[in-house]
Amino acid sequence: MPANSLTRATLGTTWALCIVGCILVLVRLYFVARRVCSLSWDFFWIVISAALSLAFQALVEVITQKGAGKHLDEIEIANILPITHLFFKMFSLGAAIACTAKLAVVALLWGMETPSRHKAWRALLAGIAVCLIVIGIVQVALVETTRAQIVTLADLLNHKSIHLLSDSYNFAYFFGAMSGLVDVLLTVYPVVLVWTLPRARSTRIATTILIALGIVPIVAAIVRTVALHEMTTGTDVTYNGAKVLLAFSAEYGSTVILVSIVPLGPIFLESWHARGTSKRNATDFTSYPQGMGTEVELVGTDSEKKHTVKESPADGPDFAKA
Prior knowledge:
elongated; 9 helices; membrane; SAT4-like; mainly alpha
């Protein structure tokens, strides 16, 4: 891909994912304000991810203006060190966003669970959450420590003077592999869960298709790891580094969007079905799983319906009542 095309792709993709994700977060916040649904832990993590993604996007603007996405021989020497420092900052921020977005998925699945299900399932989710937190903290600590050792351009050229550089890169490969594995588990698990719930077959199929889109973060994690290898083993740091940023954005951005769509889906479906109730019995669409500690129900007759929110005490705190 030509350098200018990579710069445009980086800006366009990161901005598009950031805007769509933030819009979905605001839409969900609107429904919370209208008492259609309540706040829960998955929304808490998604808000953090969206806020961090805005900071990431600001750094994308700065680093592309300095030359990220261009080949190294096209960049002024004075900009190479600042770009490198920004790359390290964005790797730390990207790792933090990826972890918080995946924690939102864990919280969402935890909310979809019912008390009658086997404890092993929740133990799996808890283990994934702990793993995400630990590897996220270690990754950020290694990257920031490595960045602090790069003071001059000579330090950047002489890798032997940067003691933790190889450790940081090696752990980044491990982080990428673990991110992909977690994405696989968080994609397969809800599909199994949905097909064990007492829902209509069409609802199960639609939910499975939606959840299957979780393959996007998996592919992005693989691409990010490959791009990181190209960056660390090659000499064109500014060009290959932009690929890493693009993959980071695709990974956490698609996760934020998917986690936001799943709880909103039943609300939109309910509104859609409510328009055609003259030909259907209202009880056909009595309840939709929110996956966020609530159920939204239609009660009343065909001519008079209203929303009520039933809280599920086993699925975490209700911040809306606080």
